[in-house]
Structures are given as C-alpha cells and as structure tokens.
Amino acid sequence: METKSYTLDDVEPTYRRMIIDGEDTQAQSGETFTRLSPAHEVEVTSFPHGGKEDVDRAVTAARKALDRGWRQSSGSQRSKLLLKVADLVRRDAEALALAETLETGKPITQSRNEVAGTAELWEYAASLARNTQGDAHNALGRDTLAMVVHEPIGVVGMITPWNFPLLIVSQKLPFALAAGNTAVVKPSESTSATTVMLGQLIREAGFPAGVVNIVTGDRVVGAAIAEHPGIDMISFTGSTGVGKGIASAAGRDLKKVELELGGKNPQIITANADFTAAVDAGVFGGYFNVGQCCNSGSRLIVHRSIADEFAAAVVERAKHMRVGDPLKSDTLVGSLVNDAQMAVVERYVAEGREAGAHLLTGGDRLDTGLNGRFFQPTVFTDVTAQMSIATDEIFGPVLSVLPYDTLEEAIGIANSTSFGLSAGIWSNDINEALTAARDLRAGTVWVNRWMDGYPEVPFGGYGHSGIGRELGRQALAEFSELKTIQLQVGIRENRWVDAPDAPRP
Fold this sequence. Notes:
The chain has 505 residues and is an alpha/beta fold. The chain folds into two domains: 8-261 and 465-485, Aldehyde Dehydrogenase, Chain A, domain 1, CATH 3.40.605.10; 266-447, 3-Layer(aba) Sandwich (Aldehyde Dehydrogenase, Chain A, domain 2). It has helices at 52-70, 75-91, 93-104, 108-129, 165-169, 173-178, 193-205, 219-227, 240-251, 275-287, 307-319, 339-354, 388-391, 407-414, 430-439, 472-478; strands at residues 14-15, 18-20, 23-25, 32-36, 43-48, 135-137, 144-152, 155-159, 182-186, 212-214, 233-237, 256-260, 266-269, 299-303, 358-361, 378-381, 398-404, 419-420, 422-426, 444-447, 462-463, 466-467, 480-488.
C-alpha cells in the first residue's frame, strides 16, 4: 500500500462535468457549485448544478441504452466490461484516493483502502454476471414445464451519500449492471468527484453510451430521480429520515426500493472477552471515518465487572489518536464533512451531558492548526439506554459505555433502538457468542471482530436500518425481476368451452 503524504501544494482545483449518454456535459441551467476541502477550507472541485431537466435527459439516455441492447447483452459481455473497470480503478487508484480525501476529509490511507475494496466489488460483480441462474420445474405434471428466469428491472436510480462515495456507489452500480440494468446516479453534492471519475472509467472500459449516467447537484436532483416515472427502481444509501421520504416518493409509482439506512450499532463485551482486542475494536468502531459510518460501533455494552477498566483503556487510546491533516499518511482520524455535521455532534454531546452521562474525554472541537472541522475523540460513561447519545445515530466520534449484568440484559439493551444494521459480541464462550448471534436483531453480527466486509456476503439491516440487501449473490436478485414461464407439453385438452365441432351427448 502506498504511504505517500501530500500537502496543499499538490492540490489543484478541478472542474468535473456530469456524464449523460456517454458525454461530459453541463447542466441545462448553466449553473455550477464548488466543494471546499472540509479539512483545509480550500477549493478542490466544482461541478454542474444539475436539475430536473438533466435528470430527464439522463433517464431518456438510460432507457434508450436499455432498449438498444444492454438488456439483451450476454453475461460474458457484461462480465468483461466490469472486469475492465476493476483494472482501471487499480490503475488510477492514487488519483481516486486523493480526490476522495480532499472532498471527505478522511485520511489518505483510508481512502486508498477503500479504492482497493472498490476494485474487488467490480471484480465480484463480474463473476455474478456470468452466473445468473434460474429454475426449471419438471414435476408439475406430464403436460407442464415451467421456468423461472431473472430479468433486469430496467432503469435504476441511485442516490449515494458523502461518507464513502466511491465504495458505496460500487456496492450498487456493478451489481445492477451485471443484472442487465442501466442507471442514473446522483452522488452527494459534498463528494461527487470520485463518482464522476468512476463514470469516466466506465466509459473508457467500453460500456455503451447511456448505460451509466451521472447527474451532479443537490436534493432537487435526488427528488427528481425518486419521482421520475421513467425510473423503475431506487437504490438509496443515507439517513433513515431521508430514506423514508424517498420510499414515499417512489411508492407513488410503486417503484421497487432498496434502502441502506442508519445504524446505532452495539458491541457487547463480555467478562471473558479478549480485553485488548475488544478495546481496539471499540476505538476503531467509534472513530473510523470520524464516526461518520452507518456501521459505527458507538454503543459499547460492557459487563459491569470490567466496565470501568474497559472505559479507562478506551479513553487512553482515544487520547493518543492521531487526529489531523488527512493528507498525511500517519493520520488516523480526519475531519468531519461540514459545519452542519459538526453542529450535530456538538448538540448530541451537550444532550449527553445534560442527561447525566459522564464525559470521560473529548467533547469539544480540536485545534489542529488547520481550518478544518476536527473534533476530539469522545467517551461517555454512566450512559443509559434511553439517552439520545445511546438511541440516535450521531455520525461523529462519540462512544457511549453502557454496563450490564446478564447476557439477556445486554441483548435487550442492544435491541432497544429502532435500528438493526449491525451488532457484535466479544466473548470466548461459544455459548454466549452463539446466543447473542441468534438473538441480536441486526443484518450483520460480528463475533470477536468488527466492521469486516466482503463482496461475497450480503449487507443490509432490520427495522429503520433499511430494506433489501447489497452485496453477495443476493444483490443480483435485488436488481432483478423474477418471471415465471409455463410451457404446454403436448396437445392441451379443452377444459372450459368445447370446440363448436365437438361431439355432443
């Protein structure tokens, strides 16, 4: 892995046009918007400010590409193109990582890891493209044969978030393409660069014009995609509140929706857990990407006999986190994405203190000598399950330690929120581990590990954490329609109305 550090001298502002029907294009309005680095407050990118008219153009292009042949393309053809994208992502890995760091404020080493993961997602989707399988039913009777086949849904609208822009669009787009769909993608207005760069690589790989269209802009673009009658499915990743709005808009046309939403994810630490490993995972789960992660393991539910010792160990590590310039290769924690998110984090810290939680460390902005939005890694104890810092997704570097006495109590605390994205248990007792894995209401349960992901296994949540699954073989099903085809074998007997010339009694 590359270890190079950068400075602002290496940064030159760029203008990146959106992509419609295979062409770099401006917004119909002619308007643009600019993104400043959240860590440095310097201009890094600007984009066309798209609107409803641009979404119309993109949907028209996607529909034409679908009907011109992409729907009927072979799995082999799709697979080869997806593999080419993976190769190009690896070729341009450093440029993609730098662009991601500048827009998100995350450390450059983290961005490099995410780019590597992105290439693997496109590779795995390529393998699925050649393995789309249906079912044959030959035991329905002597005169009946039935087939169940997978068909593309059509034009898929994708609305993606700012925290992992390249990785998350790649948890959706290659799988939709592998299934034979076309797409209209709207990246977050805060972090559009790597999505547009990916679109350019998709074009370079040889995908037909219109198969992938990228429209940059704000919520106006997102609303236009969700409401557009020419879009057959919506795939969205973001907050639960916004997801509900998108589902409501899509529901008016009965569009299929796939939603990956928020989380308030618990880590249960038992008395017999590997203490050091659990502490490390607690810190990682809370402060990775400054806590701006739907999988953030921000609720540490710790057996009362070790709760104080565990909290002290987490605090010690939190105090020594390398927080600062994300362009430096030794930085672990970078900047929050914008002022609005900083205000959210500050509000929740204040609510925690007012509710009676004990602030052990952090809780305030951090002066790094830059003009960025840095926040101290924060730890609360004396937290109850009813406090807002224990129930709400904060999207910031805030950990809460909640003590428990019995495993049943711990599982109850873990399941006490409306979310169910991920959960974990740290235990060297196999019975404890399996009991928790069975009873925790979450789409992913980690046992003695945290936040490991693989393209091969599905990802999604229960409850307010979403609808549907990404990744794995299941992702292909999400982007497919099932069609049953029944065939008559031999001559069909009249069963309703006799033919006019049939003999009569």
